[in-house]
Each structure stands twice: as structure tokens, then as C-alpha cells.
Specification:
Strand content: 15-25%
Structural class: alpha/beta
CATH topology of the largest domain: Aspartate Aminotransferase, domain 2
Number of strands: 14
Distance between the termini: 18 Å
Number of domains: 2
Shape: globular
Low-confidence stretches: none
CATH class of the largest domain: Alpha Beta
Bound molecules: pyridoxal-5'-phosphate
Mean pLDDT: 95
CATH superfamily of the largest domain: Type I PLP-dependent aspartate aminotransferase-like (Major domain)
Length: 376
């Protein structure tokens, strides 16, 4: 990527499969924009905003992720907020993972009934909360909704979907997963984390966004026919908002076709992710608990050191990556978050490993305490 006239190697783009600049995608996007312009359709799905393309995309998505039907959402964030808002009423109880994405937290905030949070990926804590939720639901006559992520986007940890599904033998609940990062990247066919963990049927409501592996905009929710029909007519964010534009929907159909039929794109992503993670671990870097392609590199240092280190990487090594700091993570920790994609090369990996080794040494030696790089 060009940044201020200089070529940079970028590790912070939501483009896992490299579809953003894939020639077939670019062509489909351009042709659809020429055919339809950006204005169509001109209404919400329920009113004048429906089209054969919207319906065909939903049908293909549903079949791909192993559900009966699917419904398109204008944005992932607002879509998830609205799914939660629609699925529960004041008698229902929500049980959710403590490290859930903001869209889950904000959806839960709208809930007028009880909610219990369980410690991140901790099944004993989940069981404790399920017991409390079951007791309460018995009194109110409501149901229990468990919510987690398929792949946690910051740590790279997979949600323990299979273990959660197994708890259905003891507790009555429905499971909603946000698989923003897992859709297109996880599982033998790329269908998602539920496929990777071999528990497709145990997930009652599956959510994926188009903003990561599909390199587009929008999202979808997939489930059985009854739930999808219910959401189609009860999600306020979709009923009262304009449908996804035609060029995006047609472009998404092309992206989905490539995602399903070009496994080499996913294989390339994993080749890069493995080379990167193996290389970093061999050099002694702490990658936390990641068991997916998301690659966080944990370092110790203060906020100003972290800023200088990132600037050093950008200005002197030509490497651009996202940095995560307090208050997202505890004080004194720095996370350099790397998002590998199918468009990276093994040479890019080698260059990054070398650069990371150098800046980590400088950080340890106190170099960034003395050499401040001013943000520019
Ligand atoms: C786990 C998760 N859920 C939902 C979203 C929101 O998706 P979108 O960008 O489509 O609004 C994101 C994107 O950051 C995400 O990481």
C-alpha cells in the first residue's frame, strides 16, 4: 500500500482471502455499478427494497453455512445489535461471553430482561450462569439465549462452540454465534467455526459479516426457517432502513462464488498465517492463545514506547500493523495485531519476522524510552 508516497507492507486489512482486489471481484463490482448505479434499490427490504439478487445471495449463504434460510443485514455491527434486540423479550435471559465484541455488548444493553456474563471461554463459569439462567427462565416462562464469538478477533481464540453445544444435553438454551472472523476462513469448506468444530447443527443462529473474508459491506444471519422469517419481519435495523445496494449485493455474490470454489485462497491464507506464527514463536514471541489466523504479538512496554515502536516500524521498516493498548488490554502490555491475508507472500513474512525481532530487541533495551518518534 502507498502511504505518503512510500510503499508499505500492511498487516491490518480485513481482507483475509484477498478478494478486495481480486480481478473477478473488481470486474463484477464495476459492471454492477455501471448497470444499476448506487441508488437501487430505493427502500427497505419489506417495502420496495427486495430483488432477485438479494434473495439468491441469501439462499446461497444459507446453504453454505448449513442453515435453512438467511437474511441480509446492512452492517454487521448494527445487525448483531438488532438480532439480539429482536430475539429476546423481558422474560428471556441472555448468557454471554465476557470478551464479546462491542456489537454483542450493545445488543445485550438493549435487553430489558436479565443477562449473565460468563468468564471468557470458561465452561465452568458458563455452566454456573446457565444454572442461574435456567432457574430464572422457569419463573418468567422465558427462554435462554447463549451468545459467543466463533473467533475472537483480538486474541484469535476460537469460541468453544462444540463444548457449549454439548451443554444442551443438560440445559435448555439457544446458541447464537458471531462468526465475523470465522466465516470464509474456518472449516474445511470455509463455512465457519461451527464447521471447523464439527457442530453445525448445534448452532441455532449463525451470524457472519461481509466486512472480513468477503472484503465488502453488510452481513447476514442464518438459522431455521421460522427464526429467519421472524427476524425478517422484526429486526428494526432492517425494517426501517434501506436495503443493501445492488452493486454490493451482486459483488457479494461473486465474492461468495470465489470463496466457495477457490479453496486455494483459503489455503494461501493459512500458509501465510502458519509461517508467520511458527516464525514468531521460534523467535520467542508470545502469541497468547491464538488458534486461528489472527496473530497478536504480546510485548511489554508503556504507551509512549508502543507509539514510538509502531512509528519506527512504519517509517524505518515500511511495515504497517495495528497496535492495541490500554484500556483494551492491561497497562504495560502492547499488542501488535497482525492480520494475515492470501495476498501476502512468504517474503513479506520473512521481512516482518526480521523487523519484529529488531524492534522487540530495541524495546527491551529501552531504546524507545530515549528515542521518541512523534506521531505524524
Ligand atoms: C466479532 C465482530 N462482530 C461484528 C463486527 C462488525 O461487523 P461490520 O464491520 O460488518 O459492522 C466485527 C467487526 O469488527 C467483529 O469483529
Amino acid at each position: 500500500m502507498m502511504f505518503r508516497g512510500k510503499e508499505h507492507l500492511v498487516w491490518s486489512l480485513n481482507n483475509y482471502l484477498g478478494l478486495a482486489n481480486h480481478p473477478e471481484v473488481r470486474k463484477a463490482d464495476a459492471e454492477a455499478a455501471a448497470d444499476y448505479g448506487m441508488a437501487y434499490p430505493m427502500g427497505a427490504r419489506m417495502m420496495s427494497g427486495n430483488s432477485n439478487h438479494h434473495e439468491a445471495l441469501e439462499k446461497d449463504l444459507a446453504a453454505f453455512v448449513g442453515k435453512e434460510d438467511a437474511f441480509l443485514l446492512n452492517y454487521g455491527y448494527q445487525g448483531m445489535v438488532s438480532i439480539i434486540d429482536s430475539l429476546v423479550d423481558r422474560n428471556d435471559v441472555i448468557v454471554y461471553d465476557a470478551e464479546s465484541h462491542a456489537c454483542i455488548i450493545d445488543g445485550v444493553r438493549l435487553h430489558m430482561g436479565k443477562r449473565y456474563v460468563y468468564q471468557h471461554n470458561d465452561m465452568a463459569s458458563l455452566e454456573k450462569q446457565l444454572e442461574r439462567a435456567a432457574k430464572l427462565a422457569e419463573q418468567t416462562g422465558g427462554g435462554v439465549l447463549v451468545i459467543t464469538e466463533g473467533v475472537f478477533g483480538m486474541s484469535g481464540a476460537q469460541g468453544k462452540i462444540k463444548e457449549i453445544v454439548a451443554l444442551k444435553e443438560q440445559y435448555k438454551f439457544r446458541l447464537l454465534i458471531d462468526d465475523a472472523h470465522g466465516f470464509g476462513t474456518m472449516g474445511v469448506s470455509g463455512a465457519g467455526t461451527h464447521e471447523a468444530q464439527n457442530c453445525i447443527d448445534g448452532v441455532d443462529v449463525y451470524f457472519g459479516t461481509f466486512a472480513k473474508s468477503m472484503a465488502g459491506i453488510g452481513a447476514f444471519v442464518a438459522s431455521n426457517q421460522t427464526i429467519v422469517n421472524f427476524l425478517r419481519y422484526n429486526m428494526r435495523s432492517q425494517t426501517f432502513a434501506k436495503a443493501l445496494p445492488m452493486p454490493m449485493v451482486i459483488g457479494l455474490r461473486k465474492r461468495l462464488e470465489l470463496l466457495m470454489n477457490r479453496p486455494e485462497l483459503r489455503e494461501k491464507l493459512w500458509t501465510i498465517a502458519r509461517a508467520l506464527q511458527d516464525g514468531l514463536r521460534d523467535r520467542g514471541f508470545d502469541l497468547g492463545v491464538t488458534n486461528t489466523m489472527v496473530t497478536p504479538v504480546f510485548l511489554r512496554g508503556e504507551l509512549d514506547e508502543a507509539t514510538s515502536l509502531t512509528m519506527d516500524l512504519r517509517e524505518n521498516y515500511g511495515i504497517f500493523c495495528s497496535i492495541v493498548l490500554y484500556p483494551v488490554i492491561p497497562k504495560g502490555l502492547i499488542v501488535l495485531r497482525i492480520i494475515p491475508t492470501a495476498t501476502h507472500s512468504l517474503e513479506d513474512v520473512q521481512r516482518t519476522l526480521d523487523a519484529y525481532s529488531e524492534v522487540a530487541e530495541k524495546l527491551k533495551a529501552g531504546y524507545y524510552k530515549e528515542n521518541k518518534f512523534v506521531l505524524a
